[in-house]
């Protein structure tokens, strides 16, 4: 398979600036930034513990696995949003190997934006899958300090992907077909396969596992929850 062609930092920077207005999960900052930013490899190894603890306190729950699930879901949504937005709207794929996260929150940053022009259709979905799932969500799952079922985390990744596609189409209705096609191809790869499916033209989605949010005091079921009827 021919490696994807490198894209210039200027092209990546333009793409990231272009998608930032699609919604908060599409924001990936660039440059050195202010404050403390840690390599994601470090925060993955720590299981995003700072965010999990904050989320558990916010929810008022002693079930740390609920907080871990929701934090992983949110992080997956940030990754998928950036990757889908750049690929579909701008024809580039960011290289996330140098990704950093703010020490006290969930925001993400690249010191220098690098990446590739999107490869042919049959190679694009596997490339995005490798970057998001293999290079980021797998090590994050391995670092979690509390036991969360692998199927639940994979379901979170599928749900986050579907939500990213919906938000992309909401911001750019003209991109409905390529965004939908790419999301469907991704949902048929590896650990995403069988974790959920689109159920309507509005990209409504029904997942096969539950993120556990319904167990939060005062919480409920998400629109795509397998428990919702």
Question: What labels would you give this structure?
Answer:
single chain, 229 residues, alpha+beta, four-stranded mixed β-sheet, three-stranded antiparallel β-sheet, 9 strands, 48% helix
Element layout with pairings:
Elements (H helix, E strand, L loop, with lengths): L5 E2 L1 H11 L9 E2 L6 E3 H6 L3 H11 L4 H27 L1 E3 L5 E3 L5 E3 L4 E3 L3 H23 L6 H22 L4 H11 L9 E3 L6 E3 L22
Parallel strand pairs: 2-6
Antiparallel strand pairs: 1-7, 3-5, 4-7, 5-6, 8-9
Contiguous helical run count: 7
End-to-end distance: 44 Å
Strand order of the largest sheet: 2-6-5-3
* Beta fraction: 5-15%
Uncertain spans: none
Estimated structural class: alpha+beta
Structure description:
With 229 residues, the chain is α+β, with helices and mostly antiparallel strands. The protein is 48% helix and 11% strand. The chain has helices spanning 9-19, 40-45, 49-59, 64-90, 121-143, 150-171, 176-186; strands at 6-7, 29-30, 37-39, 92-94, 100-102, 108-110, 115-117, 196-198, 205-207. The strands form three sheets. A four-stranded mixed beta sheet has the order 2-6-5-3. Strands 1-7-4 form a three-stranded antiparallel beta sheet. A hairpin with a 5-residue loop joins strand 5 and strand 6 (108-110). Helix 3 (49-59) packs across helix 4, helix 4 packs across helix 6 (150-171) and helix 6 runs antiparallel to helix 7 (176-186). The protein is globular, with a radius of gyration of 17 Å. It starts with 5 loop residues before the first strand and ends in a 22-residue tail after the last strand.
